[in-house]
Write a sequence for this structure.
């Protein structure tokens, strides 16, 4: 049963390799990609239910006992993330079938997508710091290619910024891993967690923790390190943007949560206060950046940054409720943000532009699309009873419980400004009249798309919107799972003994 | 030897950071390569330098005698070099393609995606 844990990594790998044998045969790629997504989803569901019911699963790859071999570990947080990856991977795969152009499909779009998902799943499931670095690189190289695929000017410029900053982050990460090994002589996370309280050079450990904070901070796009994100995320086709927006920065957040709950907890007064300050500035700069933009994708990109702030805030407050809030926030955010990007893609197909000044009048012709936009948009802003309200509520309640009034005030103000941005998109794209007065022409160009492609584009949007509503109206089970995951993170004894085979 | 390598790592880091702050694309990629090498050498140095004592168990005993060279940092570096090589090769091709498309290698002029402007489509 332990082999279950490798399935989310093996399935995408296997299918993308098979796809490579059908070089440029797009039809086969499409079918195999869909099958791979379905299998990954099934594996993720089984893994999740198993971890939820029977506790943490860990596998020592090649039967090399931890801490000498590489461990794969699925605790509740990791399995939640794998499940979300499978959902988003499936949604993006279906959406790609309806929207991706043939040129990109011929240049191995689908195998790259599966390689990317493999890298993401690997990063979630590994229990070894150096192995985490390797999975980050697998994920990054696939994302580099996906970002640059197509070779348009804005894509290449965006890719340069993305590649440079991510390589810098990798170099810092690698140096931090090296120093960690120099101090402890181990890189297994569970073993590190056990050895850190015994170390004498506490300052050195704090120093290394800051190297990790910078390295993961770049990947998570936190306050002073986020500039690559708004420069690059809006440049590729929407299906790729959506999967990046939903998953990639959250891998950085996941890594931050993992190391700052399991490993670097020796000086939380200092490290987590720094994280709290970062969280506040991340929220503010993200939302203010969004307010100044007119391109739908850029507004949404800046909102990724501001929402990352809430997750870091949950981690930084470091109470059981706050960490549970951060996890709940990740669940809500991945679903909602991907969905908003997918909707913006449909808007572009209908009106031929993402620029809010050039589009309008969508509500008149497609009221259903308006509704499908409003659900994730209002959820992002935190309007009850949608999922974002509960996510913000838990994080803010956790802040009030330990009297961190300032950060709570920032969080509430940022929520309000988020609502402003979402209302702006709603007013400009859906409510006002079309500025050019040529609704008919554009609508015609959309109706020339075949019905099956429309179904492919709309069905993931509808499913993700339904999940958002489901989380909103039935928040308790989701919150219970998040709070169980948080208690596993904050009491790592089970994790450590499971990995090291102490019982 | 450790001191020498430590100085070398420091020089590589400072040179790398200086290079990535330059505006030319070529210098940026050289800087990134320096930073990668610096990190690799850092792992090598910090894994304790032990000369001429490989981690083999002699035939007459069944335990390793201290001190012995730790093979793990070398395995880590080997992995990191391979990954770094692949990623840097990709970056060089990407930068060349960007140079051909944009027509300049000056990073200050590559602000097409950051400007607040009307959508040109």
């Amino acid at each position: 049963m332990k082999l279950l844990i490798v399935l989310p990594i093996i399935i995408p790998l296997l299918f993308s390799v098979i796809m490579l044998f059908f070089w440029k045969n797009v039809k086969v790629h499409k079918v195999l990609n869909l099958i791979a997504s379905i299998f990954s989803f099934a594996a993720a569901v089984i893994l999740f239910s198993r971890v939820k019911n029977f506790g943490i699963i860990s596998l020592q790859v090649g039967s090399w006992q931890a801490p000498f071999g590489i461990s794969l570990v699925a605790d509740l947080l990791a399995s939640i993330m794998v499940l979300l990856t499978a959902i988003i991977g499936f949604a993006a795969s279906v959406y790609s079938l309806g929207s991706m152009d043939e040129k990109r499909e011929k240049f191995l779009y689908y195998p790259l997508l599966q390689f990317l998902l493999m890298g993401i799943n690997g990063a979630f499931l590994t229990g070894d710091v150096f192995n985490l670095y390797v999975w980050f690189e697998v994920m990054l190289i696939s994302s580099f290619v996906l970002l640059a695929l197509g070779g348009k000017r804005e894509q290449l410029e965006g890719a340069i910024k993305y590649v440079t900053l991510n390589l810098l982050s990798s170099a810092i990460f690698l140096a931090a891993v090296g120093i960690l090994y120099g101090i402890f002589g181990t890189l297994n996370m569970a073993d590190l967690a056990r050895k850190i309280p015994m170390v004498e050079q506490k300052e050195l450990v704090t120093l290394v923790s800051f190297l990790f904070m910078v390295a993961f901070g770049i990947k998570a796009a936190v306050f002073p390190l986020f500039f690559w994100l708004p420069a690059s995320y809006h440049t590729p086709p929407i299906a790729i943007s959506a999967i990046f927006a939903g998953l990639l920065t959250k891998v950085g957040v996941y890594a931050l949560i993992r190391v700052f709950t399991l490993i670097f907890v020796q000086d939380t007064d200092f490290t987590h206060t720094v994280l709290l300050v970062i969280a506040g500035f991340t929220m503010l700069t993200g939302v203010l950046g969004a307010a100044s933009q007119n391109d739908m994708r850029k507004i949404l990109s800046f909102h990724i940054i501001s929402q990352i702030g809430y997750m870091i805030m949950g981690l930084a407050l470091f109470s059981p409720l706050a960490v549970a809030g951060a996890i709940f926030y990740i669940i809500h955010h991945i679903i909602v943000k991907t969905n908003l990007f997918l909707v913006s893609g449909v808007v572009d197909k209908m009106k031929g532009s993402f620029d809010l000044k050039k589009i309008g009048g969508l509500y008149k012709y497609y009221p259903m699309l308006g509704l499908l936009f409003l659900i994730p948009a209002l959820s992002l802003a935190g309007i009850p009873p949608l999922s974002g309200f509960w996510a913000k509520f838990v994080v803010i309640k956790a802040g009030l419980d330990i009297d961190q009034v300032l950060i709570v005030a920032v969080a509430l103000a940022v929520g309000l400004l988020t609502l402003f941005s979402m209302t702006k998109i709603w007013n400009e794209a859906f409510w006002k009249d079309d500025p050019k007065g040529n609704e008919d022409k554009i609508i015609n160009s959309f109706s020339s798309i075949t019905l099956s492609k429309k179904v492919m584009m709309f069905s993931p949007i509808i499913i993700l919107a339904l999940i958002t509503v489901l989380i909103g109206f039935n928040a308790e089970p989701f919150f219970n799972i998040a709070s169980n995951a948080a208690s596993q993170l904050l009491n790592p004894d089970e994790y450590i003994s499971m990995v090291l085979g102490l019982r | 030897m450790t001191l020498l390598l430590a100085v070398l790592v420091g020089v590589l880091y400072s040179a790398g950071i200086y290079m990535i702050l330059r505006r030319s694309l070529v210098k940026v990629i050289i800087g990134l390569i320096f930073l990668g090498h610096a990190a690799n050498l850092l792992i090598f140095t910090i894994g304790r330098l032990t000369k001429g004592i490989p981690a083999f168990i002699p035939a007459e005993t069944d335990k390793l005698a201290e001190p012995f060279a730790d093979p793990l940092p070398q395995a880590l570096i080997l992995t990191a070099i391979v990954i770094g090589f692949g990623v840097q090769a990709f970056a060089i091709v990407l930068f060349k393609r960007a140079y051909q498309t944009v027509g300049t290698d000056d990073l200050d002029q590559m602000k097409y995606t950051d400007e607040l402007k009307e959508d040109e489509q």
Notes: Chain B touches chain A through 43 residues (CB under 8 Å). Residues 2-51+70-103 of chain B form a domain with the Helix Hairpins fold (CATH 1.10.287).
